[in-house]
Amino acid sequence: MKVLFKTFLALLITIGFLNAEIVEQVGEKNGYEVELTTTKSLVVGDNDFFVTLSKDGTKVTDAKVKAKFFMPEMPGMPYMEYEDKAKLVNGKYKMMINFSMGGTWQYQLKFKTSDDKVHTIRGSVNL
Ligand SMILES: [Cu+2]
Predict the structure, then answer these.
(1) Domains contained in the chain, CATH given
(2) Could you tell me the pTM of the whole model?
(3) Residue 71 Cα, ligand 1 centroid: separation in angstroms?
(4) Which residues form the YtkA-like domain (predicted)?
(5) What is the pLDDT confidence band of residue 91, given thresholds at 50, 70 and 90?
(6) pLDDT (tens digit, 9 = 90+) per residue, 5-26?
(7) How far is the CA of 30 from the centre of ligand 1 (A)?
């Protein structure tokens, strides 16, 4: 019984840990709903990010989306950044971001809509 409980606890901790690293963020900007997600836990190296845009419940698929992830300068470490322009894949904007180290990365997500307006959303992710 004790062993079973420990196994169950270990499983719970593992699941919680994995979930914590999958990105699922929702934001709102100028009437647009912005969703930033990943399907896998973030890792040092290449990561696929997906952005969904919608307005009044309708998906917006004609925008230009790009993102910059960056980490401020820290003692003994220079400023780091990685940028990518998204491509529309199956109704979602997909981009690849390479993280050179673990920690907190801030991001600036920009999307240009068909009216030529550029909207910016800021946030951060952890790995
Ligand atoms: Cu750093």
Answers:
(1) 2-126 (2.60.40.3340)
(2) 0.82
(3) 5
(4) 29-109
(5) very high
(6) 666 666 655 555 555 579 999 9
(7) 32
